[in-house]
Every structure is written in structure tokens, then in C-alpha cells.
Amino acid sequence: MPDKKPAAFGSVVNPKPPLIVSCRGKDGRNNALVVVYACNCSYDPPMVMVGIVPSRYSYGLIKETGIFVVNLVPESMREAFDYLGTHSGRDEDKLAWLGLRLGEGVKVKAPVLLDCPVSIECSVVDSIRTGSHEMFVGRIEYVHADEGLVGTDGKIDWPGIEYLRLR
Q1: What is the mean pLDDT of residues 60-88?
Q2: Pairing relation of β-strands 111-113 and 118-129?
Q3: Nearest to 120 by CA among 58, 66, 46, 65
Q4: Is residue 162 part of a domain?
Q5: Would you say 62 and 154 are in contact if contact means Cβ atoms under 8 Å apart?
Q6: What is the mean pLDDT of residues 78-97?
Q7: On the CB side of 121, how many CA atoms lie within 13 Å of its CA?
Q8: How many domains does the chain have?
Q9: Structural domain of residue 98, as residue ranges?
Q10: CATH of the domain at 34
């Protein structure tokens, strides 16, 4: 293969959508973090999987409650995305500091980020340690989508989302 050369290992499956996972502890405290390891993992029943490093503050919240919300991030939220990815909820209420608009989950008791075009409420059904991350398998309980993205058939217009472009 003369047109190929060895490349570095690591996060090699790209592009991947920018995601913010929001959650709430049993004490009622909200938090959110940037997640770069995520995917669909079943369509029947519908499930997604998110990978979180065990040292992260949100990891403990999700372990204790068994719920989370996957929020797809638009370009307009770049500043919030960068902040959530570089600060810990152990040290501050990041969502309040950013002044993000929050809604309440319909099926799970966790915050929905209202400025994200799609938010997916999930209940943990399983998890697996894969090395640096624990992959939480979440059964999709409810999907919120901006009105303009939902067709008459109820399906989301995925190309209509202006995703944040990772650098």
C-alpha cells in the first residue's frame, strides 16, 4: 500500500459529534461535561453509549443515579463547550456560571440543555470498563428536538443541525 503510512493511535474514529452529557446528583446538584467517546449502540431498543473517565465528577453522579442526558452541541455553544471541557463540577456550578438555559427531563430527573438542538434522556442499563473510560449504555427514554428539526413523520432532520466543528 504505497499511499498509506502508519498513523498515531488514540481517538481515531472521526468525525464524531460534539456532545455535552448533563446529569444530576442525588443531592439535586446539576453538572455537565464534554464527552468525546459516544455512539449509538442499539436501535431495538434504542440505546446510546457514552464513555466517561472515572476521575471525572460527573462519573460519580451517573453511577449513583443511573441517568444522564446526551446533548448535541451547535456551533453557537462553542464557548460553553470549551468551558465545560476544561473545568470541573467539583469546584463550581459550571452550568450556573455559564448561565445556560436548563429544562427538566420528562422521563429522567436530569437537566436538559435547552440551547442544544437535540437532547436525549437516558437510563443506564449496563456499563463496561474499557481501559481509560467506563462506557455507560443508556436506554433512550425521551428525545427533545428543536421544532424546526422535526419533520411531519416525527424524524429529526440530522443534516439541518449546525454542529460545533471540533478543532
Answers
A1: 97
A2: unpaired
A3: 46
A4: no
A5: no
A6: 96
A7: 17
A8: 1
A9: 19-144
A10: 2.30.110.10
Residue 126 in domain:
yes
Q: Which of 82, 92, 103 is nearest to 34 (CA)?
A: 82
Predicted structure pTM score: 0.92
Distance from C-alpha of 166 to C-alpha of 74, rounded to nearest angstrom: 11
User: What does the H/E/C string look like for the chain?
Assistant: CCCCCCCCCCCCCCCCCCEEEEEECCCCCEEEEEECCEEEEEECCEEEEEEECCCCHHHHHHHHHCEEEEEECEHHHHHHHHHHCCCCCCCCCHHHHHCCCEEECCCCCCEEECCCCEEEEEEEEEEEECCCCEEEEEEEEEEEECHHHECCCCCECHHHCCECCCC
Say if residues 33 and 45 touch (Cβ distance below 8 Å). no
Q: Which three cell numbers stand for residue 92?
A: 463550581
C-alpha cell at 145: 428536538
Alpha-carbon distances of 113 from 6, 16, 153, rounded to whole Å: 40, 19, 24
Phi and psi dihedrals of 142, rounded to 5? Answer: -165, 145
Total residues found in the chain within this entry: 167
Q: For 99-119, what is each residue's pLDDT tens digit?
A: 999 999 999 999 999 999 999
In a domain, 152, yes or no: no
- 14, part of any domain: no
